[in-house]
Predict the structure.
Amino acid sequence: MRLSGGLIDRGQTLKFRWNDTWLKGHAGDTLASALVANDVKLVGRSFKYHRPRGIFSAGAEEPNALVQLRKGAAQEPNTRATVAELYEGLTATSQNHRGSLAWDLMSANDLLSPFLSAGFYYKTFMWPRAFWEKIYEPVIRASAGLGSLSGKADPDLYDHGYLHCDLLVIGAGPAGLTAARTAAQSGLRVIIADEDFLPGGRLNSETYEVDGQDGPGWAAATASELQGMDNVRLMTRTTVYGSFDSGVYGALERMTDHLADSGSKPRQVLWRIYAKRALLAAGATERSIAFGNNDRPGLMLSGAVRTYANRFAASPGQRVAVFTNNDDGWRTAQDLTAKGVTIAALIDTRADAPDSDDFRVYKGRAVADTKGRRGLKSITLENGTQVECDALAIAGGWSPNVHLTCHHRGRPVWREDIAAFVPGTDLPPGMSVAGAANGAMTLAAALKSGHEAARTIASDLGHAARGTLPQASDEQFAITPFWHVKSSKARAWVDLQNDVTTKDIKQSHTEGFRAVEHLKRYTTLGMATDQGKTSNVLGLAIMAEASGKSIPETGTTIFRPPYTPVPIGALAGRARGKDFRPFRLTPSHKWAKENGADFVETGMWLRAQWFKRPGEKGWRDSVDREVEMTRSGVGICDVTTLGKIDIQGRDAAEFLNRIYANPFAKVPVGKVRYGLMLREDGVCYDDGTTARLSENHFVMTTTTANAVTVFRNMEFARQCLWPDLDVHLISTTDGWAQFAVAGPKSRALLQKVVDIDLSNEAFPFMACGECKAFGTPARLFRISFSGELAYEIAVPARYGDSMIRALMQAGEEFDAVPYGTEALGVMRIEKGHAAGNELTGQTTAHQLGMGKMVSLKKDAIGTVLSQRPEMIRDDDLRLVGFKPVDKGAKLDAGAHFLTKGDPEDMAHDQGWMTSVAYSPELGHSIGLGYLKRGADRMGEVVRAYDPVRGKDTAVEVCSAHHIDPEGERQRG
Amino acid sequence: MLINHPLLGPRDAAEFVVKGDAALIGRPDGMTASPQEMHDYAYLRDNPAGTHRELWYHEQGDRSWLVVTRDTLTHEVLDVALARDVARAEGRSR
């Protein structure tokens, strides 16, 4: 019901939809406060037993009131109604029920509760094993979780941002606001963040005065003062969710969640805040007391009842009872009385509690049970006294919000006088704590601790501390710990979100799960979206009691980020879809697109896979044609993606000689050499060609995939291993557009393009040089991946698009054909060149048939360990070629080789097929693969056994060089 | 985590690639090292709980290799030096 007063704007009425009903609230309401004002008690069903549940808190700690917000693609499950701001047209539905909220079919689970106790999953779903996939998993999946996802792509935008400050104040309650003002007046650059949309913290929920002003008024004036200062950034709707290394804090700002439509703005921004110092002023969270049926709609934390009454002008009931173990519960009774709400009774567990003229007080008593299936009707005290009421405010004491102090594994310490954990001494570097978060539970104390903390920080950072301490008085704050009502017969809830009862905790103890971390995992206490904010301390107090230990001996579970849930969308920011990993485009991309290319992702690049021509039915038609036309005429392929490293310096040759396993010291100027690169453990990890353009200038190519790693390792060798070698490296992969021009007519084509003599005498196989192509400075390399007479020509990347067009034009008279990565792959398999499929991370030079290339006369990376006995065995795997005995058979990569007559098991495994292709020139399928003693088994027929595809193909072992094994074409 | 780059000032750890134990600077000379020595160099790394000297590479930056002395328990960065300077100080040259 609505009360008078409050911080809502009654001039603005907002209509919103709750399940099938349209209701009204006001600007300044949360969804929860509007539901309270509309007397909606039942808002959801509990996770396990589907018990009816109502709103329990007024903040981020809410365990019950989780709803689905919005509709369609923007639907968001498990939103806490207590922090969802009301806006015109808001749509919310309850979750975790089949059928209507009031008549949930799953509530039968409640009757099964004796079987669903702690460790239920671990005990029940163990056997029989065959039930796992077919029965248990579908059942668990169907009942797991609370809300449901829309199944559609998130339509909203999210962004990331970075902020820097001297002091980050976390929380804008009395301590935080005072600290921010003191720090700002002392000249610090301050960021102050609060999860609420209204700064002030508990001041907005209470009836306190500060500096002679009412609390909310003082908070608003202070916030407005801060907003007017150039060195302050006041961030509302912003949750600082984690403390990370080096004073970095994560914060989630909800930019448009309070609007019906985000427009084109980001819905949420994930901030990374770099703070020299941080002051945690996150306040405290109230906790419950466990007693019979303490989970009915209408039961609410006492502080939350005050928040609804004072801030939102709403009462959860007409007749409210209060159950308390401390002075704070009295405040609720007094505030409600002042607002005209009837207090049915105040039950104080302390025998020495005071008296009241305004309401009935039961001293030294406790509530043992409650009645009312879908809303509270009455409570029953231990002595049998029944009190009629429609709401019960529970005051179990306050727990400081120490979470962020523990993100670097700090441990909170127990303070007996306030019956709560407070931050320990092992705080994250640069963090201090003020206000209720530090155990300063009363107003004047909180203001003072905020003010003083800020002054200390200002002095530490070299500023003269300024600012004045706001004046207020301290309220009563005395507590006698009281955790659960032992005489209660009915189930007593500890963790409402996970349906954990006192019995579950005792059972966990009985069954030996006594450490708090075990207790959490065995019973699920403190899991899920609320992470036990209202239940953890209660749970471990009961565990402590069961084990006869003190609370500090029992300890707490570890708090980890995030403090409250952070949407995956916010973590992803703009990095989603194609933007998650943007493609790099080759210089000929635009031209390739114009010419019908299909593209494929290779590493970080998008490359042309083949160029389809009219009439071609499948990719094989295109690829076969590209291979045939290249081998018979001339083909052109963009090979820009290969890594390119420019190496210069007086010691460049010596450096390369230590990087490559084969000799490199004496490569003549104007020559290219193939190089094999090993890791320090002797395994081959990359290969490529390196050209010597001049005495002190080399250009290396790496494989596309390893371009980054090779460069990194070379910098390591240069800076860390041989720091005085005169050599410098720069990555020029993107700097040069490079095209392979391959085929018997490649020389004729290129002779039209470049200004140097390309005759075999003047520019033989493996020659390189600088020249001009169409008048543009270019580099020419006579290297061949295809096995044909071939060249690679490189021009500065900005000429790449012009170059491909000019090359194709020049090639028209030769019927030049562009080819893609697939034809490139076919030709390299025909030629027997190893590629990614062959370099497995275990490949040795001997296996590649390159054992003799490894020079033992020099110290190169990996040489020593490449000579270990196991890596140079004669009976090891060798890379060889394969062709099917039946020429019509198609080979498959991944098939394993078996010697004829051997059984099909791993003990008789002879190796595996690494790469296969259809060779248009040979007219049948061909393969490359590793075979034990392969080099000695030419002509032998072995089985290519492929149980995954159900195939068993007879293949003949042959040279890996399927085509032109003598290499005459490339030298011609 | 922030790494105080000797040339560029405090940089976010996300800009770096970590390689681990800075003992990798002490590569034995392959012409004289025994296979056992080279094996130990390639495979054996210290991974202490506490102060550790590590190699970090500023890949998204100036491509410097750094030796970062770091407490692996608290992630506190105690010292940062250019790996090249460290290598020279350890007697490495050409």
